[in-house]
Amino acid sequence: MYRYDEFDHQLVQERVAQFRRQIERRMSGELNEDQFKPLRLMNGLYLQLHAYMLRVNVPYGCLSSRQMRQLAHIARKYDRGYGHFTTRQNIQYNWVKLEDTADILADLAAVEMNAMQSSGNCVRNITADHYAGRARDEIQDPRVWCELLRQYSILNPEFSYLPRKFKIAVTGAPKDRAAVALHDIGLRMFLNDAGEPGFEVIVGGGQGRTPVIGKTIREWIEPEHVISYVEAILRIYNLYGRRDNIYKARIKILVKALGIDKYRELVEAEWLQIRDGALKIAPEERARIDAYFQPPTYESLTEQGAELDELGRADPAFGAWLRSNVADHKVVGYALVNISLKAPGKIPGDLSAQKMDAVADLADEFGWGELRVNHRQNLVLPDVRQSDLYSLWQALAKLELATANIGLVSDMIACPGLDFCALADARSIPVAQDIGLHFANSDKLQHVGNLTINISGCVNACGHHHVGNIGILGVDKRGKEFFQLTLGGSSDERASLGDRVGPGLPQSEVPDAIERIVDTYLEIREGEDESFLDTYRRCGMDVFREAVYGPEGPAKRVTPTRQVA
Amino acid sequence: MSTLIKDKKLIEDPFIRIGVDDAIPAKGAVLVPLTTWQDHWEKLLRRGEPVGVWLKSDEHPEIIADDLDNLQLIALEFPTFRDGRGYSYARLVRERYGFEGELRAIGDVLLEQLHYMERVGFNAFEVDSKDALADLAIADRDFSVWYQPSADDRASSAQLRTELKRNG
Amino acid sequence: MAQMLIANRLSDGLVVFRGADGAWVESIAAGVLIRNDREANDLLEQSLVDADSNRVIDPNLIDVTEHAGARVPDAIREAIRAAGPTVAVET
Prior knowledge:
The complex is a heterotrimer.
Chain A: H1 6-28, H2 33-41, E1 45-47, E2 52-56, E3 62-64, H3 65-78, E4 82-85, E5 91-96, H4 98-109, E6 127-128, H5 143-153, E7 168-171, E8 185-191, E9 197-203, E10 215-221, H6 226-240, H7 251-258, H8 260-274, H9 283-292, H10 305-314, H11 316-325, E11 326-328, E12 334-339, E13 350-352, H12 353-365, E14 370-373, E15 379-385, H13 389-398, E16 413-414, H14 429-438, H15 442-448, E17 453-456, E18 470-477, E19 480-487, E20 499-500, E21 505-506, H16 510-524, H17 532-539, H18 542-549
Parallel strand pairs in A: 6-7, 7-8, 16-17, 17-18
Antiparallel strand pairs in A: 1-2, 2-5, 3-14, 4-5, 4-13, 8-9, 9-10, 11-12, 12-15, 14-15, 18-19, 19-20, 19-21
Chain B: E1 2-6, E2 9-10, E3 15-17, E4 29-33, H1 34-46, E5 51-55, E6 73-78, H2 85-96, E7 102-107, H3 111-119, E8 124-128, H4 132-141, H5 157-166
Parallel strand pairs in B: 3-4, 4-5, 5-6, 6-7, 7-8
Antiparallel strand pairs in B: 1-2, 1-8
Helix pairs in contact in B: 3-4
Chain C: E1 2-9, E2 15-18, E3 24-25, H1 37-52, E4 56-67, E5 70-73, H2 76-83
């Protein structure tokens, strides 16, 4: 894991001191709310429905056990005893006070964490494959590039007042677990014909009101040029992105307006001027950062597949968990373990301070003290010995963190929604809880197989509903909450946006509608191996629409109106 | 109220700033909008006094890139502090077009933006502040570590780390 | 038909209602119930002064109905602000 040196420490501490001053100037009235808001956003502080919310960066989803314990401490000392993991691999605290925020940031700095640029019109937390450095299919660990880009983008004086927020994701594997095509910049590593690793650069992806799958701006770039290329993209965006309408200010709108060819032309011309300058990544700097991501000293172990299958047969609950929550590790005898934060009826992504401490202990006991945050709001223990899986499972089960549902129906993404968020139109959490309880049966879950449900409480799509196999979007229809369903979304290397099923349904009808969609899938799928997504792509919408609304179709076509909050 | 700081000192503005429809004064250093420069540059240079051009946030300085040798001042307007185009313009003016005269930030310029503005190449500021010099001093002290290179002379942390390593 | 003034307190972001004598109170029951436009405008103006002097952020009028003695804002969003999240958090 990356460790701060004297420079990193100094910078973070200076940032905390600066924000402490800015808070004082706000409290005394030297700064009004209009002047203060962008400053507090650039330090991760939102004002939500009930209180301030602080979003803390978890850089490319990597956490140490020590950091997790500090997150627990912060939850207890300054908040209401819990935190929420997000779709950008961050953690959010819903109940912080402005007057405490500088102290919270100081406590974070003490464990090499920060909230710099976790919000605001600047480059946000750079996210990555949550299996980075460990996945069997990985070409190269993307985290070194994430860290280099992180440092490049933090407190960057040129790009702190962009037209809008800017999100970057990186994957080092051909299987895209980081949703790179749905980001402002996505970097997808692959090997060229000469066997050299480099990046495909994708630009202009995003969700929100106008979801777009990103386009390839450059098919191949050597890793040493990745920062200068990002600077060229940012500079063109900063210069030409729209500033007259916040709903049309993302880079995806600019790329669409100019066309990818014109945008590429501008970027490439700019890049030619800077490619061999100070931003070219020096081998020493790359090597310095690489050193932090060296794998631990693994033991020489044997593959335990057969033994695990045996245990799974003897204890079917363990068997189910093995199948859904455990992934292949690149080193023989080890495994990647997903900790599900989606127990039926719980708030997706939430974790109490007590359980944060427990999970930190598990990371120490069953690995080298490292954890990951997954953009599906779960956690990962990246280095568990296969021979330890059974005891780990038992420990997780005691904590209600062993739900065998990773990638299955009840592993929903849900944004905080109208229960917490000032932007929301509808509550997403109760919907998630209802569905989770409907699909609590483990056998049923396994029988259905991989099926992602993503729930957003408004068109801003923080719940990533556009790329859920089933998407649920909460809307406000004349003051009441309704939910529109979409089908067929996907955020992986074959990314697609969901298709709308029909008019919004009241909350009470949503779990049944999901049930009917799932039952239809089970009826028409070509064998157990055809996933819901594949079945949908093969069969199309009609059969599912009929399942939801009946053969007569929806009662009447209603266009839901959205009230501006 | 606005005060002018240049090279960290409080000064009276030697330039008269005129608007788009204003006449060019007979004498004195003058800061003119882009269209006035484009229409009257010969007359402005013939006056034999310092000339500056101020640009709105949608006027890219590449338009005047070839004229820089004749200008003593370029001012970039921030209509609202949220409009960040001026930061890119400033870097281009300094690093791409090589301008060495006064680069001034005007408009909605507050203490909290001064440090970044200075890093991208501004050396003069019309600051909205009760005590502009104090604000600048505060802004200057905010940071002593910078991750990335910019238009200023400060070494980035990457450079310093490499040096440290080389020097043992 | 009644209204109340709602805002977030600057120091801690908590939801507050305009109470009597210029106070801002956390409980909707303790806030001032406004029954006519003139009262609404007066209190809103005073609230904007409070916003300017950094006590509260974004004061605004909301519609409230009394149900069996309890005051409930008409809009779902405001009702949730008044009563808190509708889901139980795990602490």
